[in-house]
Amino acid sequence: MTTPDAKRHMPYPLEELIAELRELLGERGVSVELAARERASVDGSRLSPVISAQLPLGLADVVAYPTSADEIAVVVGAASRLGVPITPRGKGTGNYGQAIPFTGGLVLDMTKARAVVSVGDGELTAEAGATMVSLEQAANKADQQILMYPSTAQSSLGGFLAGGSGGTGSIKHGSNHQGFVKALDIVHADGTGEIVHVEGDEAQKYVHNYGTAGIIVRATIALEQLQDWRGFFASFDSFEQLLPLMRAFGELDPLPRLTSGDLSTLADALPDDPAIPAGRASLRAILDVSTVDAATALVEAAGGRVEDVREGPQTSMKISMMSYNHPIEWLQKAYPDTYFHVEVSGDPLIDRIDEVHAVYPGGMLHIETAHGRPIGMLAGRYSSPEEVFAGFDRLAELGVGYHNPHQWFVDFEPARTRELARTTDPNGLLNPGKLVDATLATGAKVS
């Protein structure tokens, strides 16, 4: 039954779509219950106080739960034929509002379409809802590993490709549009419900654009030979002792899978772990076992101490979950209503750290390495959006690249995506509100 709030704003035949979806998916494959619609209408954007102040930004009219790539396709076909907006959704772990249904309509929850289709030599094919950790496990059984996975390893493949950018493994392989994707199966909003197969450069056009040009239903990603990894934990009296090691660890051969460093503030906010002692700057890394001795020598030469070296995939997962955005989450848990963050990159993160920290009150950098350069999350004490945005110019003056994580616009190749969407989504039904003129995306990017 159509809910009262849906009737107020609904310019499309919702009842007809719901009936058709129930025919396609069964009663359990569709929900119009308020609780289900509310759960499907939020993501991890509460990490941003700028976005949080604007929540809720939208509410689904109906949620569909297809269980396969083929079912995703027919659902998209039905909704687009009837002119109903479609917001694709994976695990909802994105931090920037990409999965919020601004205009209501259908939220397409793809987490039940999670089959690993095949594992071959150097590649793996899986449906959009498969979690990244399940793909890593499947690859490991074939003596291989995926090139990268996000810090939230329970994220879905489709969500990571459409909304993510990098993570564990990016120190070597860069972002997920740089050789990670070999082929995609896509559904366009043209009413046909047909699956379109794209490979190579054509596939890259659908990566990191939030599903605004087509919805990923299945993907083939690159694999490499499995390595014997160790979780490496070190600590230092000061953050300044740690910083040069971000470059030095980036010269180890083989490269680490991840390097990650923080001020003592993070160690004080984390659950107790003797490998991450309170009051000390912390370095965590996922190292090839052959480089542990060299890494130990680097740490000791810098005045630090190695706290522990641990084996097993759970250790790697633990270190991953303390990388990228996750330190900010831990700080927010320990100190509610205090911190915001900005994504940053470049040599000044090491060479001009005091000036970088001074950009925002209470500034503190979480630092990593990706593709040969320092990257990180610069946290500060939140006061207002104006204070956040004013810092962008100061970062640029220091030579720091930044990305604004407090907006939901597509800002990676937006012109290319808009051009593609003219034919793949002629009526603007795919994730409405996310593909806008680039001038509206405040502080989008500086390289």
Structure description:
By secondary structure, this protein is of the alpha+beta class. It folds into 4 domains: 4-109, Uridine Diphospho-n-acetylenolpyruvylglucosamine Reductase, domain 2 (2-Layer Sandwich), CATH 3.30.43.10; 116-226, Uridine Diphospho-n-acetylenolpyruvylglucosamine Reductase, domain 3, CATH 3.30.465; 228-314, Alpha-Beta Plaits (2-Layer Sandwich); 324-426 and 443-447, Alpha-Beta Plaits, CATH 3.30.70. The protein is built from 18 helices and 18 strands. The protein has helices spanning 4-9, 14-25, 34-39, 49-52, 69-82, 132-141, 157-163, 170-173, 200-204, 239-249, 264-269, 292-301, 313-320, 326-334, 348-351, 353-357, 385-397, 414-424, and strands at residues 30-31, 62-64, 86-89, 106-109, 116-120, 123-127, 144-146, 181-187, 195-199, 215-225, 229-236, 258-262, 281-288, 305-310, 339-345, 364-370, 373-381, 401-403. An 8-stranded antiparallel beta sheet has the order 14-11-13-12-16-17-15-18, with helices on both faces. Strands 5, 6, 7, 8, 9 and 10 form a 6-stranded antiparallel beta sheet that branches. The protein has a 4-stranded mixed beta sheet with strand order 1-2-4-3, covered by helices on one side. The radius of gyration is 22 Å and the shape is globular. It starts with a helix and ends in a 23-residue tail after the last helix. The model is unreliable at 1-8 and 441-447 (pLDDT under 50).
